[in-house]
Amino acid sequence: MRSRYAAFALGLAPYLIDTLAPAHPDRQTPEAAHVRELASIKDVRRFMGLRVYGDWVEGDRGEVLFAAKLFERGQNVGIVELSTFERVEARWRYASGVLVRLADLTPRDLESLTRETFLALAASRSAR
């Protein structure tokens, strides 16, 4: 997760594409367009910090719960995500994620964030 965060901040699009799971929907996007899109993110977003709350591995599947502080045009566009990774040929690949806007969580929510509390918060926000 840390390497993908750094790659987004530096605009390393080929690395981001290479670390996607084979079945990830973004693999269907024409590569040249996808590279341009990913490489340009660093020009519009400021990457202000990453906090990993936990990670879990079971066989060839893993999860990482993290918060990323991000700003775009002065607006907070940060996220909290539970990312799912798959181990493919001995390398971890990003498969999917459950997202909640960082601005939608309170400091109290973040203080004791676990996988279970995050999933409950995400479910309550999607039900709105």
Keywords for this entry:
Nuclear Transport Factor 2, Chain: A; globular; alpha+beta; 128 residues
Report on the structure:
The chain is globular, with a radius of gyration of 15 Å. It has helices at residues 2-10, 13-18, 31-44, 107-111, 115-126, and strands spanning 45-58, 61-72, 75-76, 79-88, 91-101. With 128 residues, the chain is α+β, with helices and mostly antiparallel strands. The longest helix is centred in the first third of the chain and has 14 residues, at 31-44. Helices cover 36% and strands 38% of the residues. It has a single domain, classed as Roll (Nuclear Transport Factor 2, Chain: A), CATH 3.10.450. The mean pLDDT is 93. It has five helices and five strands; from the N terminus they run αααβββββαα. Strands 1, 2, 3, 4 and 5 form a five-stranded antiparallel beta sheet that branches. Strand 4 (79-88) and strand 5 form a beta hairpin.
Give the topology.
Blueprint (H helix, E strand, L loop, with lengths): L1 H9 L2 H6 L12 H14 E14 L2 E12 L2 E2 L2 E10 L2 E11 L5 H5 L3 H12 L2
Antiparallel strand pairs: 1-2, 2-3, 2-4, 4-5
